[in-house]
Amino acid sequence: MTPAQFVTESAPSGEWKRQGNRFTGRISRDSASAPGEGPDEHGRWPVEPGRYRLVVSLACPWAHRSLIVRKLLGLEDAISLAIVDPIRDEQGWRFTLDPDGRDPVLGISYLSEVYLATDPQYEGRVTVPAIVDTVTGQVVTNDYPQITLDLSTEWIDFHRPGAPDLIPAEREEMDQLIEEIYADVNNGVYRCGFATTQETYEAAYDALFARLDVLEQRLDDRDYLLGDSLSEVDVRLFTTLVRFDAVYHGHFKCNRNKLTEFPNLWAYARRLYQQPGFGETVDFDQIKRHYYLTHTTINPNGIVPKGPDPRSWTA
């Protein structure tokens, strides 16, 4: 069996099984807590502009979602932003992009410091995105699927004028798409890349491209996945698509097709990339350096490919 990149998340069968989210607090308009207080008895923190810090890696697709939604909704002044170095060391995500290697607001060198301050017994993988409370220094949430939904629904009083409504009133179709895209595409590329047996790799590979074929057909007669309007599910698909040819096609062996070989998906991805909030939050250098330099089991020599040419995204 091939050695696992993340041993605790690799099943005996060779299948990659992503760890759960340890911190699942919510910042909610329904919180009974006053400004400056901690969570109420239901784990709901008060909505309070200027209080919380969103920690992201520009390399990470899960974190990239929150960065895009924060930008689309105009929440830059309400929720501050911290960006970690794309290269993790043995202690995890580092603030080496900041002066003196410390986040200027939280005063920490590693994201793991606030994880352990919140739960001293935590032994899992430290992940981004994470929202940290600057008052208590605790992690509010690293629940990446819920973070972007809450930015849309709980921070509505601080949205910019004309901000898009990313969550339709009738959510059933969107939620079904989100579930399918997560299983087969967003997480599917990792299930390919981190598989440790041929059988589990091929199963994930087949599911990935079967779903991409369905999405390619779906986009034959529409601009967005739900029709004429941008929604949350488009953001979630985009962050995988924008990394596909640069990373997943080669590094994770997702090589039946390149994104550029799906006419509808490629046109759709470029259309999103050229909209405010999307392309301006993409950093191909950080994306490639993260994957090719931190997944040492997959790429032991640490060679970072020069291509593909990012100018194709603005054609």
UniProtKB/TrEMBL annotation:
Residues 167-291 form the GST C-terminal domain. Residues 1-11 have a biased composition (Polar residues). InterPro entries: Glutathione-S-Trfase_C-like, Glutathione-S-Trfase_C_sf, Glutathione_S-Trfase, Glutathione_S-Trfase_N, GST_Omega-like_C, GST_Omega/GSH, Thioredoxin-like_sf. SUPFAM superfamilies: GST C-terminal domain-like, Thioredoxin-like. Gene3D superfamilies: 1.20.1050.10, Glutaredoxin. Residues 1-46 are annotated as: Disordered. CDD domains: GST_C_Omega_like. Pfam families: GST_C_2, GST_N_2. This is Glutathione S-transferase C-terminal domain-containing protein. It comes from Kribbella sancticallisti.
